[in-house]
Amino acid sequence: MSRSAHPAGPRHADVLHEGHYSAPPADLNVLDEKVWSRTVTRDAEGALTVGGIGVARLAEEFGTPAYFLDESDFRARCRAWSDAFGRDADVFYAGKAFLSRAVVRWLQEEGLNLDVCSGGELTTALDAGMPAERIAFHGNNKSQDEIERAVRLGVGRIVLDSFQEIVRVADVAQRLGKRQRVQIRVTVGVEAHTHEFIATAHEDQKFGIALAGGQAAEAVRRVLTLDGLELIGIHSHIGSQIFDMAGFEVSARRVVQLLAEVRDEHGVELPEIDLGGGLGIAYTSEDDPREPHEIAKALSDIVTRECESAGLATPRISVEPGRAIVGPTAFTLYEVGTIKPLEGLRTYVSVDGGMSDNIRTALYDAEYSVSLVSRRSDAEPMLVRVVGKHCESGDIVVKDAFMPADLAPGDLIAVPATGAYCRSMASNYNHALRPPVVAVRDGEARVIVRRETEEDLLSLDVG
Ligand code: LLP
């Protein structure tokens, strides 16, 4: 199988270039700041430190495998996003990337809103004190119970995903004597992934209501007739790990076109558009993500231009970055176990975690970097594959990387940029215990999600 398949799934296998690692980097000790969180550096002895704490101490105190999250980097990225979008826009952090109560508190302190897509995420958000009006509720198949809770608790917006859901949410709101603020999620016929985007006539996917065939216009018509619903805008999310703004451009143009149609037909100018998330991060040195201020400027220029040409007042914009905020802020620390050189092929380096803490490599053929972090080494580079300890040959953490040839059992290695969709997609496969998430900041480290224990496993198994 090609290893260049797209991180968003095999459907996109045709859009990425081949092979990142054509030659080893000049110095394997260099920690490329593109892929590591901001406070990561090597100390005088050559060991990695984050937030001023060395990995040997972190491993001793918290064990391995473990995710270490650079809290000041997380907060700085939140501020960069909200500063970039300014007062005329709203940033909703996409909780699916990684959510915990500590994260919710940081978001609040940094002034961000939150996108949730399940009852569990909603509960976590509310329990940590996120005001309901700052929450957007997503999902293509929200349960009756989720809808009831969201409306009753007064979430700021529910993003409607189907014709049936329009009726369900309106019924609940009416029964509770409420008027629920809603957006309609439309599929604009754009699939944007990494360096490419594909514009198609219509999309073959489960999310949203198609613009094509007048379906989204029909959804607007229905929502506007229902007393329980207040239509605040249109939502579009076009994909994952996107670097190329062209997909957003097409999406914004099509959404604005719908706003113009709504104005012409109903005499209503909808006040908001949400352009979703999906902004890319650097997993390897080859990736070149854009800064939030460039993204904000590009998006607001596109929307302003399209609205001017349609004769509409510019709506308030919202965005939903998940990966771009939390992704780069964490790394996974592993201890090296078995090392198996395969003559003429590569060396298999087994670590004490695997596909249970990072399914993205197996699931999406995603690319990651890896470094020896407990010491420096000037040994020759060797081609390695970092694999886990699961009973599955596809249990690969990093497919191809160079590591020093003196790598030995007991060394600590770390995979950067694992803040998004690693802990949140972690599993108990082979009854693995999901690793803790440890927040590190200014010389202090504290567990924000604890490691699972064997008692946790047994307590779910009722015998
Ligand atoms: N808004 C909506 C409506 C979404 O569906 C998503 C992601 C986001 C925002 C946030 O996207 P982000 O900025 O994090 O890319 N598990 C996959 C990613 C799935 C994303 C699903 N929706 C992965 O590991 O790459």
TrEMBL record:
Positions bound to pyridoxal 5'-phosphate: G278, E320, P321, G322, R323, Y421
Gene3D superfamilies per the UniProt record, alphabetical: Alanine racemase, Lyase, Ornithine Decarboxylase, Chain A, domain 1
Keyword Lyase: yes
Catalytic activity line of the entry: meso-2,6-diaminopimelate + H(+) = L-lysine + CO2
Modified residues (N6-(pyridoxal phosphate)lysine): K96
Matches recorded under Pfam families: Orn_Arg_deC_N (PF02784), Orn_DAP_Arg_deC (PF00278)
CC cofactor: pyridoxal 5'-phosphate
Record keywords: Amino-acid biosynthesis, Decarboxylase, Lyase, Lysine biosynthesis, Pyridoxal phosphate
EC number annotated for this UniProt entry: 4.1.1.20
Keyword Iron-sulfur appears in the UniProt entry: no
Signal peptide span: none
GO molecular function: diaminopimelate decarboxylase activity; pyridoxal phosphate binding
Gene Ontology BP, a term: lysine biosynthetic process via diaminopimelate
Function: Specifically catalyzes the decarboxylation of meso-diaminopimelate (meso-DAP) to L-lysine.
Similarity comment: family membership: Belongs to the Orn/Lys/Arg decarboxylase class-II family. LysA subfamily.
Summary of subunit composition and partner proteins: Homodimer.
Protein name per Swiss-Prot or TrEMBL: Diaminopimelate decarboxylase
UniProt organism field: Streptomyces finlayi
Taxonomic classification: Bacteria, Bacillati, Actinomycetota, Actinomycetes, Kitasatosporales
Gene: lysA
